[in-house]
Write a structure and sequence with these properties.
single chain; about 170 residues; alpha+beta; five-stranded antiparallel sheet; three-stranded antiparallel sheet; 5 helices; globular
Length: about 170
């Protein structure tokens, strides 16, 4: 099955589920989007469709995911740590593509943060974008992708699109 057919099937499946949900639930306009409400659960149909398309069309062959205990992540931890004790980072994972790095990290007294960095070629980094907080009730991964594409247009699309939250509460 070619890529266009797979993409079409994903769109049809998500659209069918969304239509069924609309018949069984209430659609609410929230901020700049719409949510499907089923009981106490919120579904972001537009975010889910966009994320499904991204997942089926992205190319992650050159994106490398580093676990929290990898040496590269330890070096990045020193860069993103703040000065105070409450600004110490607890990296969950990092993704790399060329000179670009995306780091997902907890902090002692702050919400989880995802930092998009570009190496200056001398073992130092320049911050291209930072995502913190929550997009709830909207799709978190899609919100992160959109923010990084908007704020760092020079960043590799593969790196941004291949990022998947490592763990809750970002998930």
């Amino acid at each position: 099955m070619n890529l266009a057919m797979r993409r079409g099937l994903v769109v049809i499946a998500v659209a069918a589920v969304s239509l069924l949900a609309c018949a069984l639930a209430i659609v609410q306009k929230v901020d700049d989007g719409y949510l499907i409400v089923i009981g106490d659960r919120f579904i972001d149909p537009v975010g889910e469709i966009k994320l499904a398309l991204t997942r089926h069309t992205r190319n992650c062959a050159l994106v490398v995911r580093h676990s929290a205990d990898a040496p590269r992540v330890a070096a990045l931890k020193r860069f993103i740590d703040g000065k105070g004790a409450d600004e110490k980072s607890l990296p969950r994972a990092a993704w790399t593509y060329g000179d670009w790095v995306l780091v997902e990290s907890d902090f002692v007294n702050r919400e989880p943060t995802i930092v998009l960095l570009k190496s200056d070629g001398h073992a130092r980094y320049v911050v291209a974008s930072i995502y913190g907080g929550s997009a709830a009730p909207f799709n978190e991964a899609q919100a992160i992708h959109e923010q990084f594409h908007q704020e760092a247009p020079g960043a590799p699309t593969q790196l941004i699109d291949c990022y998947e939250p490592a763990s809750a509460p970002v998930k």
